User: Fold DUF2150 family protein from Halovenus aranensis.
Amino acid sequence: MSNEPGEYYTEDRWQNWIDRLREEEIDPEEEDSARLLLNLQDDTAIAVAKILTDFDEGVLDEETTLGKLEEIQEIVLTEVTFENEDKEMLIEGVQTSLMCVFHAAHEYVVGGPAEEGTIGEYIEAAAEEEANEDLDAALGYCVQAGTLVIDGEEMDMGMAEELEFGLVAEWVNGIDSLQTAMRDPEVVEEDED
Assistant:
């Protein structure tokens, strides 16, 4: 499955994942379902990681990079409707996680990695802002944490487990996918049954 150069992610690829979600019985408590959702999320994160790597290596200039990120963002953040509400909630969760990935990638390309503060400090600040119901500020801090991850710093995954369930936890989950993808941008194979 070779992509032509410059093609990082396609509408078809996303649609294949969505079709699989439609067809399968999804139970997030069950390992196969959880893995399908994670693979779908990681697959997008890998495409983002490849774009960022090409940007860092000078293969893509800033404008092209932002354009490529936007193309993928439009594909994967478009509202998806399922007849099954649980599936809809699950895909919305994936999209919420990925939203942070796109914001972090954009911020990294335009502004570079956060200049001060650690990933942990940013995530703690995000959790505090979420508790204060300032979601824009919370997202801003998660994005800064994301820029550091893109820059090669390690995020301790124990952090996500300590977070209250909510948006910050979902955003951090997205950053975790991005971290995995930046370390090992190998394509998630779409398993053929």
Summary: DSSP finds eight helices and no strands in the chain. Residues 11-183 form one domain. Residues 1-5 have pLDDT under 50 and may be disordered. The chain has one domain: 11-183.
